[in-house]
Amino acid sequence: MKTFLVVDDSTVVRKAARRMLETWSFRVEEAENGAVALHRCRQHMPDGILLDWNMPEVTGFEFLELLRGEAGGAAPRVVFCSTHNDAAHIASALSAGADEYIMKPFDADILREKLVEVGLLEEEPT
Description:
This protein is α/β, with parallel strands linked by helices. It has one domain (3-117): Rossmann fold (3-Layer(aba) Sandwich). It contains 5 helices and 5 strands; from the N terminus they run E-H-E-H-E-H-E-H-E-H. Strands 2-1-3-4-5 form a 5-stranded parallel beta sheet, with helices on both faces. The protein is globular, with a radius of gyration of 13 Å.
């Protein structure tokens, strides 16, 4: 079973993402900031990470830079999830090692599409 780490300081966003991901048979863990997320990754590196940008202690951007420097840290597929939609933020996230970027608010269709794009889910048969 593939694992997913949802990193967001909003409990509501974490719970909504968890419900979506569990529907697709992911084992889901949650972290309320980048420091907690880094600790979880050091214990067990997930297959995928849904990552908020603005969080206390360690931001999503800082977490991503630290993650990619960790042993095995290049492996997880990271989807940044933020209210920032300007080209500079998106380019920064991708250059720091994010695999995809989605805007808040998002729904199951948008998240599923991005997970297919990064190879964590199969396309639904038509």
